[in-house]
């Protein structure tokens, strides 16, 4: 084996390469016999040490940032802050949260309606039990009056009852009813029972559902009873009541009326005096006519105020809300059923479209907030990069 | 137990994208230093390394299932560096990056640091004097720790040729760095 080959084998051995048994034996023999080859091995080891002095390059932050960007672009690495905005899983989570919020809002609305209905129902039950107590087993309008007089019904205060005060009372009720016509008849009966006056009453039918309005006046002392009866006849959707105190206006008009009456008496006395001149008499008569006109105007104003305050005005709006699925009742012709079904379908489509718009309107601010947040995040990130 | 590179690549090829990030973390340091020693310029080395990893991310499907991953990756890196060197030789003369002070050991004294810097400078110059193939072989063998057979696979030549390349490269380096070797002996 020549020297060049031995040197090559020594280089391999120093590099940690596996030698065959024959090569290893040849190298060992050569190293023992030749000091030059021994020196050569030492030199190779020394070269290895020198080469190790070439330091490694450290990975720079710039390189790391570049690689992170590349991997993010390729979808290998996901940015933690951006994750909620672009990953499909996070979109699902976001959608789920939005749905939960919508469901919670609707549940709260339904719950609040139920609470109102249950309170009205409780009042009705209380009235029934009170009626039973006074000996009438069945539901009769008179029993309510009796119960109220006996003070067994808890008073539902719409406005404080102040003696000699002039109060204008107005109540508006919005009710959902099963049958608009029978509800109209019921309310009319309640008003008649307390000697009220029906001012306006109408029912309109549009397709499957009907709606109507009743405006009536009752004495303030019967107002609470009638309202409780009406509430018990359907599902209350909204109620507004107002009480305007016009006592000051009434007293002021009354005082001015008294003054004008005194003036009229004086003018009448002056007219009776025979010593007066003709021109004075004419002047007095003219003044008397003016004063009389003022007195009549004030009297009519007082009359209107008295009438307004002596009766409370109640406006009841009511509507039916039947299912969109048309009931195929016996007695309806095919044409009527077909028309009803088509109307129900159109109504359902409109309602669905409205619902979609409502949901979109609800989610829009949330989406805008999310976009704004994402924009701020991108802006801050850009600033940090700079 | 660590998952092998080949298994990670198989996962990546199957659609598990984050799997390749582990490979990046394992090899970023080695590939960057291989490029640095091949090109002698930090900026170019970083550019080359990022492009090599880009090739890895986008061309993973080209890797054969029976190939060893490190060999495959170093083949990509070597080809890329060769292309850069050829392009550079056409454009301008190579300017060796001298900004390696940041890598010197701060714990060493001033004199030791200067000596180390000088040794590094001589070593870099000596490596530049080697032929392209010798340089590739010596960098892969000494700095990247590849075996002769792995180097043969990366360079696409026979094992015997690798033995000769490394032997001649070390012979040349011994001549170039003779004074450093003598300093050590003395």
Summarize, please.
Chain A has 386 residues and is α+β, with helices and mostly antiparallel strands. Chain A is built from 12 helices and 5 strands.
User: What gyration radius of chain B follows from the Cα positions, in whole Å?
Assistant: 18 Å
**What is the string of helix and strand elements of chain B?**
HHHHHHHHH
Bulk shape of chain A: elongated
Work out the helix count of chain B.
9
Major sheet of chain A: order of its strands? Answer: 2-3-5-1-4
Could you tell me the strand content of chain A as a percent range? Answer: 5-15%
**Unreliable stretches of chain A:** 80-86, 135-163
Please summarize the sheet with the most strands of chain B: none
Ranges of chain B where pLDDT stays below 50 over 5 or more residues in a row are: 94-107
Mean pLDDT figure of chain B: 81
Helical content band of chain B: over 70%
Distance between the termini of chain A: 65 Å
* Portion in helices of chain A: 55-70%
Total count of strands of chain A: 5
Which class do the helix and strand fractions of chain B yield? mainly alpha
Shape of chain B: globular
Oligomer: heterodimer
Q: Can you count the helices of chain A?
A: 12
Task: Write up this protein.
- The complex is a heterodimer of chains A (386) and B (186).
- By secondary structure, chain A is of the alpha+beta class.
- Helix content of chain A is 65%, strand content 13%.
- Chain A is built from twelve helices and five strands.
- Chain A has helices at residues 3-14, 21-33, 35-51, 61-73, 83-86, 88-133, 141-149, 180-193, 220-232, 247-272, 278-310, 334-385, and strands at residues 167-177, 197-206, 209-218, 235-245, 312-320.
- In chain A, strands 2-3-5-1-4 form a five-stranded mixed β-sheet.
- In chain A, β2 (197-206) and β3 (209-218) form a beta hairpin.
- In chain A, α10 (247-272) runs antiparallel to α11.
- Chain A is elongated, with a radius of gyration of 49 Å.
- Chain A starts with a helix and ends with a helix.
- Chain B is mainly alpha-helical and 186 residues long.
- Helices cover 73% and strands 0% of the residues of chain B.
- Chain B contains nine helices and no strands.
- Chain B has helices spanning 5-13, 19-39, 42-58, 69-91, 110-129, 132-143, 148-155, 159-176, 178-185.
- The longest helix of chain B has 23 residues, at 69-91.
- Classes of the chains: A alpha+beta (386), B mainly alpha (186).
- The A-B interface holds A 7-8, 11-12, 15, 17, 42-44, 46-51, 53-60, 62-63, 66-67, 70-71, 74-78 and B 17-18, 20-21, 24, 28-29, 32-33, 36-37, 42, 45-46, 49-50, 53-54, 57-58, 100, 102-105, 116, 119-120, 123-124, 127, 141-143, 147-148, 163-164, 166-167, 170, 173-174, 177, 180-181, 184-185.
